[in-house]
Amino acid sequence: MSATAARAGESLTPDAIAALFTAPDGGFLCARWGRPVAPVVFGLDDASLGVFRAATAAVLAHARHPMTETDPEMGANLMVFAVRDWDELADLPDLDRLTGREGLPERLAAQGAEQYRLFRFDPDGSIRAAFAFLRLGGALSQSHPAQLAESVAVNALLTWAHPVTPSQPLAALIRAAYDPLLPACARDPSHALRLAARLQAPSSS
């Protein structure tokens, strides 16, 4: 996880919010899901699958966004792949086509990555699909399934520029970003001001 992103999330000033969605090249993108989320998890035992689904449902409920069994176009649109080592991904059929990334297992192994995620988008810029890849043979092997599941769900709900660590301030930010009065996709950093204003406003049920 990115310690910088986690610390930035604790203050939630407009500048800190903008930083959470600003890529290294300076581009700003804050997009949320525009369709119900249909999650599926590969590579875990039945007990862990239940934990992952419950954690995803809780995060979505907090954001007031629906979860569903099936997406009409894709079947599942939030796909989580758990492997012990990245070379296991090579056994997945059509991985390059699914992710749009050639040689992904080799790239992740070369980077020493513990996890990786990517998004696909609908024409209006809202999230259409998200893919999360977890290497459980390294540091993540010590993570509790519930903690890991919450982290995956939180990181999949918005287009954070860097991985974030779940926290109460970030939970409030997610809820604000899913305000139906806000656009599903924003590319102007001034969007951070609108999010910050909603965090300061009295909460509603």
How many domain units? 2
What is the oligomeric state here? single chain
CATH topology of the largest domain: Chitobiase, domain 2
Give the strand line-up of the largest sheet. 2-3-5-4
Q: What percentage of residues falls in helices of 4 or more residues? A: 25-40%
Would you report the number of β strands?
A: 6
Structure report:
With 205 residues, the chain is an alpha/beta fold. The chain has helices at 3-11, 14-20, 46-63, 95-99, 104-111, 145-157, 168-177, 191-200, and strands spanning 30-31, 39-42, 78-83, 115-121, 127-135, 185-186. The protein has a 4-stranded mixed sheet, covered by helices on one side. A two-stranded antiparallel sheet has the order 1-6. A hairpin with a 5-residue loop joins strand 4 (115-121) and strand 5 (127-135). Helix 7 crosses helix 8 (191-200). The radius of gyration is 17 Å and the shape is globular. The two termini are 31 Å apart.
Please outline what is shown here.
This protein has 205 residues and is of the alpha/beta class.
Please tag this protein with its features.
8 helices, single chain, disordered N terminus, 15% strand, 4-stranded mixed sheet, 6 strands, two-stranded antiparallel sheet, 205 residues, globular, alpha/beta, 2 domains, Chitobiase, domain 2
Topology:
Layout: H1 3-11, H2 14-20, E1 30-31, E2 39-42, H3 46-63, E3 78-83, H4 95-99, H5 104-111, E4 115-121, E5 127-135, H6 145-157, H7 168-177, E6 185-186, H8 191-200
Parallel strand pairs: 2-3, 3-5
Antiparallel strand pairs: 1-6, 4-5
Helix pairs in contact: 1-2, 2-8, 3-6, 7-8
